[in-house]
Amino acid sequence: PVNNLLTINSNGNAIKSCEIISVSGQLxxxxxxxxxxxxxxxxxxxxxxxxxxxxxxxxxxxxxxxITVVH
Length: 71
Fold this sequence. Notes:
The protein is an all-beta fold. It contains no helices and 6 strands.
């Protein structure tokens, strides 16, 4: 579960951007990833389940994860 900050570690993958999407399909956040460790604030999001999509340099989906936001 994520409380206020979601941490993304690239672990050597070329991650260019990420999206957080609600389970209803609404885009909640989209941001560029500029370092090997990125922090995303989710403190203002409603508690619940979200989808995290990580994209590579050419727009390809590298990974999709389910995250749970709790407060």
